[in-house]
Amino acid sequence: MAKKPESVSTLDELGRVRLSKSFFMREFLYSEVANLHGISNIPDDPDLAVTVGKHLCEELLEPLHATFGKVVIRSAFRSCDVNGYCSEQQRAKKKGYSCASNEANFAGHIWDRRDANGHAGATACIVIPWFADRYEQGEDWRSLAWWIHDHLPYSSLYFFPKLAAFNISWHEILARRISSYIEPKGCLTRPGMPNNSGTHAEWYRGFPELAASSN
Fold first, then answer.
1. pLDDT (tens digit, 9 = 90+) per residue, 52-73?
2. Domain count of the chain?
3. Exposure string (b/e) for 130-147, b if CB count within 10 Å is 16 or more?
């Protein structure tokens, strides 16, 4: 599918693309901003969006699903129109809008654009109910962050206070950076920091072992 879908049938075809064993493209296209404001959230380059979406699902979301159970997609693909509108509202200090600029989101939430260095990537904001329940009972968000860091080839993670939702990114160049809006806020780790290597198993005692996922 080289062209942007321009009919119900071609959009339906895109939505039916299976990105991995448990995930289809359709669930990554939902957007509250798009729905509320009537803005199209359809990739201009569906082939690139599908390619990076498969990496995101097969390498990151499937292992999480196999290990912890259901993975809920909160926000994933954004078209340039949707992200641009959201970013404008954020700059105007409108409540409920939290999008970076389009350029900052290329190869991030904007799956169908490469970044300034020509690299591809994809981001999804997800909730893991298994962990959200533990977080509500006082579990430190860093326990899940370090589990992912030690087990999965993620590029970046960004944690949020509500439900311990977090952005998880696949990228051709792995940044291996974790940041958070939950206390302690800021950067937990990045390359060059002494805690970026080695094991952090003391943080996630009682967590399940990484489960094999068949894609």
1. 999 999 999 999 999 999 999 9
2. 1
3. bbbebbeeebbbbbbbbb
The pTM for the full model equals: 0.95
- Judge whether 57 lies within some domain: yes
What is the tens place of the pLDDT at every residue in 81-137?
999 999 999 888 888 888 999 999 999 999 999 999 999 999 999 999 999 999 999
Enclosing domain of residue 37: 8-203
The reply to whether 152 falls in a domain is yes
SS (H, E, C) 80-132: HHHHHHHHHHHHCCCCCCCCCCHHHHECCCECCCCCCCCCCEEEEEEECHHHH
Question: Six-digit token pair at 212?
Answer: 């094999």
List Cα–Cα distances, 166 to 42, 46, 119, 128, in angstroms: 23, 25, 22, 9
**Is 78 part of a structural domain of the chain?**
yes
User: Encoding tokens for residue 26?
Assistant: 């359709």
DSSP letters spanning 119-176: --EEEEEEE-HHHHHHHHTT--HHHHHHHHHHHS--SEEEE-SGGG-EEEEEESS---
